[in-house]
Design brief:
Elements (H helix, E strand, L loop, with lengths): L20 H8 L2 H9 L5 E2 H7 L5 H13 L3 E6 L5 E6 L1 H4 L2 H14 L2 H20 L7
Antiparallel strand pairs: 1-3, 2-3
Helix pairs in contact: 2-6
Length: 141
């Protein structure tokens, strides 16, 4: 029987190198995209408020990331005919399906940050010990 309609979820395999899901994962793995999506969970926000809230994001990167998220159907952009023009960004229904995941990932980093430098120090120390054991030492910087 011939299938009608578009592709279904089971038609995709993230482990295949040519799978288009890799592009979506690449977008979601971007720190700026995660921070924008997490910020928009509270509701629609204007561009300048997003820029002010997300420290050290440049105007260019914010614009590029918002455009990519809009293209992927995760964020909507609404222009209001005011003087000056007001632009507001919000999560789309598709973007809202990510709120729990995005929040968990972003705030996991906050909760577990103290453990990361400890793990890095332990790894670096064990690496030095292994290199000394084989007679070569390369300093990590």
């Amino acid at each position: 029987m011939k299938r009608t309609g578009g592709p279904r979820a089971r038609d995709y395999d993230v482990y295949e190198d040519q799978c288009p899901t890799r592009l979506v994962l690449d977008r979601l793995a971007d720190k700026w995209a995660l921070l924008i999506l997490d910020r928009l969970q509270a509701g629609p926000m204007r561009f300048n408020l997003l820029k002010r809230d997300i420290k050290r994001i440049t105007q260019k990167v914010l614009t590029q990331t918002l455009r990519k998220l809009e293209r992927d159907g995760l964020v909507s952009r609404t222009v209001f005919a005011t003087v000056p023009v007001t632009v507001e960004y919000a999560l789309t229904p598709l973007g809202e399906t990510l709120t729990d995941t995005v929040s968990s990932l972003a705030h996991w980093a906050e909760r577990n940050m103290p453990a990361v430098p400890k793990a890095q120090a332990a790894f670096d120390a064990s690496l030095v010990r292994r290199q000394v054991a084989v007679g070569t030492v390369h300093r990590l910087r």
